[in-house]
Write a structure and sequence with these properties.
Strand order of the largest sheet: 6-5-4-3-2-1-11-10-9-8-7
Number of strands: 11
Order of helices and strands: HHEEEEEEHHEEHEEE
Structural class: alpha+beta
Number of helices: 5
Helix content: 10-25%
Distance between the termini: 34 Å
Largest sheet: 11 strands, antiparallel
Length: about 250
């Protein structure tokens, strides 16, 4: 199974490869049901869902930490992500590896076609894979829903519970932690653990996704909501190169 953001075979990389970059059967055993009573869960999920209805676009930057679960003690590999998302299903994610500045990777969709584009170095050819809806795009749809706070979309595949994060937890003070458990065996085969930390403004800040071999932790560093995004950003046109970075947002929400 591919990672959320995974380079074209046989190339291996960090990511969403999901989204972009995704619930757990195992987490259910680790998180006692008694930690969140039913009314608290319903209220928290309803509040986040209501807030998300006003979000049409999100763009910003994130840091992804990718760990091989079979290599205990190894430091995670880092990637920088610059992303743009538009409801219901358009996205653009450019991936840069700080330790390999020549490497370029991009994932985008215009809502119909999904493109995976990778270039190992400026003097190397660009490899492109196109696909339609399927396992590859499912990861991006899930990550997109996390960033937008679209719990309604996530509930089609997962059972969600929420617990308030204690104010003493400086990483997510006054926010919530959401645990997502796969609702079907098919989704459970793709995702072993899926967790979202939401801040006091009800925006996703940390997304944790694990499958049998890889653990991804995506930290949202900067995000801008409901600003116009050029439609051309969500499609791929062959130019002979993958952009080093995507356009920066004009303003940010810390």
């Amino acid at each position: 199974m591919s990672h959320l953001l995974k380079p074209l075979q046989p190339i291996r990389t960090l990511l969403l490869s999901a989204l972009l970059l995704t619930g757990i059967s195992a987490v259910a055993a680790e998180t006692p049901a008694a930690t969140v009573d039913a009314p608290a869960t319903v209220d928290a999920l309803a509040t986040i869902t209501a807030a998300a209805k006003s979000i049409t676009t999100v763009q910003g930057e994130a840091t992804q930490r990718t760990s091989d679960r079979g290599q205990k003690g190894e430091p995670p590999a880092l990637s920088t992500l610059r992303f743009a998302m538009q409801t219901p299903n358009r996205y653009d994610v450019v991936v840069v590896k700080p330790r390999d500045p020549d490497f370029r990777q991009r994932f985008c969709s215009d809502g119909t076609t999904h493109w995976e584009v990778v270039q190992l170095a400026p003097d190397q050819p660009v490899d492109v894979i196109t696909s339609t809806d399927g396992e590859r795009t499912a990861r991006f749809r899930r990550i997109m829903a996390c960033v937008r706070g679209d719990l309604t979309a996530l509930q089609r595949e997962f059972t969600l519970t929420a617990q308030a994060v204690p104010a003493a937890d400086a990483k997510a003070a006054a926010g919530y932690r959401l645990d997502l458990v796969p609702a079907t065996p098919a989704v459970a085969q793709q995702v072993e653990r899926f967790q979202i930390d939401v801040d006091a403004e009800l925006h996703a800040r940390v997304i944790t996704i694990e499958d049998a071999s890889v653990s991804l932790v995506i930290s949202i560093d900067r995000a801008v909501y409901n600003q116009p995004i050029d439609a051309a950003r969500f499609s791929y046109v062959a130019t002979g190169a993958v952009p080093a970075v995507a356009p920066k947002p004009t303003s940010t929400v810390p």
